[in-house]
Predict the structure of Glutathione S-transferase family protein.
Amino acid sequence: MAQANSITLFDLQFASGCTTSPYVWRTKYALKHKGFDIDLVDGGFTDILARTGGRSDRLPVIVDGDRWVLDSFVIAEYLDETYPDRPLLFPHKPYKPAMGFIDAWIWNTVIGAWFDNYIADYHDLSRPDDQPYVRETRTRFVAAPTLEAAQAGREDRLPQMPARLNPLRKLLRETPWIGGDAPDYWDYSALAIFLWLASLATTPPLTDDDPMRDWLDRGFDLFDGLGRHPGLHSLFGLQLKPGDPEPFDRGGMGQAVTPKNVGPGAPVQPQ
Ligand SMILES: N[C@@H](CCC(=O)N[C@@H](CS)C(=O)NCC(=O)O)C(=O)O
């Protein structure tokens, strides 16, 4: 059990000391949500096994007293089960199906869309001793011979990406947080993906006027600015060229997915 209200978290950092892994980011938020101080173990990719005493080659990992817990989702469940009197990460039951959907959608939509466009930056921002490993492993994931070739031409691709997030924008017009009136693990998991993006977005992925900005700013400000590490880049400032698609749906932003049926005469949304 937690000693002096502190839980140890093994971090996965770039050379700036900024966390990059979305799984670690959401675990940081989860620990803070539960009211714990984080005893952070700094480090990068290639020292994970050594840092964790051979227990894991993936992060996050936490140590709570003498209890080691691996995997971000298992950690979140462990925290709610072990500390049910502290604010719950999963106040909505059952949470697993919706969590699985949110995770899959946002992972696919954000990481899937932006990964290649920042993949050479990802390498360059890594700790120097991690860079050969990052290059070797990440080259396997891209459909190009090198990370630099995969990233090349992103100026034309980046403007295509923001509109993919319209379902999330619509939801956030209806509610201050994905979790409702207060943030919970759904928000932290989604925010963590944008923090991953901010850790490597050397050129901005979203326009200044993106309607998600308010939720992102509020989320990054939580817990005394947990998401405001100086190594993070701004997500905003994407410049569009004539002919680029609309970055978000300006027309229907105030509406639910289909307008609420309030009886005859209600507005009809084209299908
Ligand atoms: N399902 C695991 C995934 C953990 C994972 O894959 N972490 C990545 C960082 S996002 C990692 O540790 N990568 C190490 C590497 O690439 O060598 C969790 O939720 O904790």
